[in-house]
Design goal:
Shape: globular
Oligomer: single chain
Order of helices and strands: EHEEHEHEHHEHHHE
CATH superfamily: NAD(P)-binding Rossmann-like Domain
Low-confidence stretches: none
Helix content: 40-55%
Distance between the termini: 38 Å
Strand content: 15-25%
Number of helices: 8
Number of strands: 7
Radius of gyration: 17 Å
Structural class: alpha/beta
Length: 234
């Protein structure tokens, strides 16, 4: 029987690639999205990870329609880049609320079902900048660094029930966001990566799918970089 996998923010970019990869591996994938349209070919529910009631309602809907989710990919997130001197409280707090507290809301609610199953995977999508930092991204890098402590605490708290928790840390990925960079900046970024190129969303998705698989059953509390060597194991 296939496992139910939930991917938050799975309607575009890395999240959509993860949804496709998990589906190809035979999982029953449910995509959550905050706005816009859900992707074709997937079960979907609307969910705003910054709202506890919305997370609760979303999981209730999933459980009523399809059953208990066994694989949870906390991918939903936002950026509000800016130099620190000009970064408002709102710019900082909203990114923390979506990326870090949002992941907590999702994992906390999902844990209820995982404890009943006595197995499961919590997979948090972090970033290389959570370890190495990034100018103009104090808020974003802080939120992604926080995921590591969160996942490791989940790993310790839930491990005895057969539940793993890990963080995937992508480097620079080819997405709609990076596609808008000018060629000079793209070359600079690629030049800073030992492999000399951007990552594809599919390369991130394949690692997430591996961590969701039975082959990864003894990996927990890990920070798994998919960054072309940019973070060098930070």
């Amino acid at each position: 029987m296939s496992s139910i996998a939930v991917v938050t923010g799975g309607n575009r970019g890395i999240g959509l690639a993860i949804a496709h990869s998990l589906k190809s591996a035979g999982h029953d994938v449910v995509v959550t999205y905050r706005s816009g349209n859900p992707p074709a070919g997937f079960k979907s529910v609307q969910m705003d990870v910054t709202n506890t009631d919305s997370v609760e309602a979303g999981f209730n809907s999933i459980e009523e329609q399809w059953g208990t989710a066994e694989i949870i990919v906390a991918n939903a997130g936002i950026t509000k880049d800016g130099l620190v001197m000009r970064m408002s409280d709102e710019d900082f707090e909203s990114v923390i609320d979506a990326n870090l507290t949002g992941a907590f809301r999702v994992a906390r609610r999902a844990t209820r079902g995982l404890l009943k199953l006595k197995r499961g995977r919590l997979i948090f999508v972090g970033s290389v900048v959570g370890a190495v930092g990034s100018a103009g991204q104090v808020n974003y890098s802080s939120s992604k660094a926080g995921l590591v402590g969160m996942a490791r605490s989940f790993a310790r708290e839930l491990g005895s029930r057969g539940i793993t928790a890990n963080v995937i840390a992508p480097g620079f990925v080819e997405t709609d966001m990076t596609a808008t960079l000018d060629e000079k900046r793209r070359s600079e970024i690629a030049g800073s990566v030992p492999l000399g190129r951007f990552c594809t969303a599919e390369e991130i998705a394949d690692v997430v799918t591996f961590i969701a698989s039975p082959q990864a059953s003894y990996i927990s509390g890990a920070l798994i970089p998919v960054d072309g060597g940019l973070g060098m194991g930070h």
